[in-house]
Amino acid sequence: MASIELWNHCENPYPFVPAEVLDAAPAVRASLPNRYCDPEIAARLYDEVFDEYRLCDELGLHIVTNEHHSGINNLWAASPVITGIVARLTHKVRILSLGTLITVRPDPVRVATEYATIDVLSRGRLDIGFVKSGATEMVSGDANPMRIREREWEAIDLIEKTLTSHDGPFSWEGKFFTHAHVNIWPRPYQQPRPEFWAATSDLPTCAELGRRSIINTLLFGGYTRTKQAFATYRQARADAGLTPPNEDRFSYMAFCYVGDTDEEAMRVGQKIPWFLTVSMKSMPQMSKFQPGQIAPEMAPAAWRGGASKRPTDLSVASLIAQGQMFAGNPDTVVRQIKEFRRRVGGVGRIIMMTRQGLVTHAEAKKSFTLAAREVLPQLQDLEPVT
Amino acid sequence: MTLRAGTLELEVLRRGSGQPTLLIHGVNPISPRAAFVDFLAQNVEVIAPSHPGFGASARPQDFDTMYDLVNLYHDVLDALPAPRINVVGFGFGGWIATELAVAGARKLDRLVLVDPVGIKISGREQRDIVHFFNTDPAELNQRAWHDPARRPNGIYGLGWQATIDDTMSDAEMVSLARNWDSLCLYAWKPHMYNPQLAFWLRRIAVPTLVLWGASDRVVTPEYGHAYAQRVPGATFRAIAAAGHHPELEQPQEFAEAVVGFLTA
Q1: Of B133, B174, B184, which is closest to A299 when you measure between CB atoms?
Q2: Which of A115, A135, A313, B69 is the most buried (most CB within 10 A)?
Q3: The CATH classification of domain B2-262, taken from the options 3.40.50.1820, 3.40.190.10, 3.40.30.10, 3.40.50.620
Q4: Which CATH number fits domain A5-379: 3.40.630.30, 3.30.365.10, 3.30.200.20, 3.20.20.30?
């Protein structure tokens, strides 16, 4: 029998910049002057979301933090800082940092140190997630956007070795990182190390995650891409002679709102696509023209006619149809998640992006409560996916 | 046509006869359709390889720094049979040419730097070189040309992204994307310069001409003057009604200036 975990992911968006400013600005990520960020409002938002995390801890919903920089979409600018706070605010649930931007940060040993510290102070409730980073992040972090996949893997390797080495200093002389003397204190609480996750739908990367038993999560990948990614993961393990993966190796992040009724969920849920319609706008040099973003062979398709990957139909109904959102009353959401699980061949961890866009603190708490009390119990002891 | 340089095989454009003159390109390889190439080839032998990762030249695994490019161009000079070779470097390629000259490349005869990048002059809060990768392509296109409308058809300089239209073929797009990726790999950080290079320009011991588009607003003529002042005995010459690519905007005047200097 299999069970599905529910995780809450909130990026702590800042939807309080006047619409006329956002409309006039060429970009709302990386370049919008921070005079538009009122620290008083930001402080209130931090309080609210940390309160939501405490509620999740009571309800049994696990927690995800992440980081993005210099934009209205995300006030979690330093995931380890936020994750460390969450570790002390909560007592029961697991905490996933998904993640600090290891392709931007210069020293993976420092990253490992931060995570080991959080693992100890949470007494072993930390999971560590890796993300490749987006185009605006390369500019905000002044990191070369070329070769980031290789850089990411070397960073992961160095972080893993740092977390699992306990016999005195070792040295690292890699292609992207060097460190003459690595010996972190404290060592992590979990042995041999906290669970690793990575967010990707890039198939060669999914295959490598499979070979390494790292949890593969997709963000809004929809049915087809998600199924393909998980199949690639499974196949890579089979090809390497490894055991088939359990469903807990697979995770999926979707927009989510659970209401008392389908009508309520659709209405409140319609506040969430702000994430896609408003908070993504970035400069052309930080999107389709940034080096390394697409293989050169894909350039004609990406450049012709100003082609944009941004979906045009952003109703809740269309997002549900694409498998990018779960919304409805608790039974409806259970049905949607079970359907998603069936269509992608199994998934063990659903990450709900609920406090997003214009969703309020009160609305978020209501959805979490319903998700924990009425959705989660129905996702336990499930028959295997056939 | 290819040129074997050390262990690498490079795409190369060759035209004309006379003094061998190596052209080291900037953001994109030297176009065989560029008028200045014909003007130069009437007087000198033009040899214009594509850097690894540009045009049809392969980029080997782990070839990814300016250090690799400079050593490769030492290989290129060694691979050419002539005992003395002129070098003309354009923009980013001007930086490579400067590094070669500072290192005292044995065969280097005369050096022409065309709106080169590569050195840091002003303070930490002033940028000498407009950021290639973090500037709106529309702005870059305005800054790079005296008159963007005079860009020769099918030839691309900085800000080329702003000129994409239906006449551009898929093959051109793939090539431009590949060139752009490679340039970024080599020169993202520090962006387009070597922090140590300005100090060592005094080591350049060959006759040097610094040519500059008077309307270049990617790297300004003031930067060019400062560059030339650091090279012993260098001559600075501005080309009117031209931006970052004077060879494309004023091909005849450009070629006359270069040939005049190389054959003096």
Answers
A1: B174
A2: A115
A3: 3.40.50.1820
A4: 3.20.20.30
When scoring A70, A138, A144 by the number of chain B Cβ atoms within 10 A, the one with the most, hence best to mutate, is A144
Residue with tokens 């490079």: B10
Measured between CB atoms, which of A146, A286, A299 is closest to B184?
A146
A151: helix, coil or strand? helix
* 8 A C-beta contact, residue B145 and residue B159: yes
In chain A, where the domains are located: 5-379
- ipTM confidence score: 0.94
Please count the CA atoms within 13 angstroms of the CA of A147 that sit on its side-chain side: 20
Q: What is the phi/psi pair of residue A96, to 5°? A: -110, 125
Q: What is the pTM of this model?
A: 0.95
Cis peptide before A192 (omega within 30 of 0): yes
- pLDDT tens string B19-60: 999 999 999 999 999 999 999 999 999 999 999 999 999 999
Instruction: Compute the distance between CA of residue B131 and CA of residue B148 in angstroms, rounded to an integer.
Output: 18
Q: What is the pLDDT of residues B187-234, one digit of tens each?
A: 999 999 999 999 999 999 999 999 999 999 999 999 999 999 999 999
Using a CB–CB cutoff of 8 Å, tell me whether B139 touches chain A. Answer: no
Q: For chain B, what percentages of helix, strand and coil (3-state, to nearest 5) are there?
A: 35, 20, 45
CB count, 10 Å around CB of B160?
Answer: 23
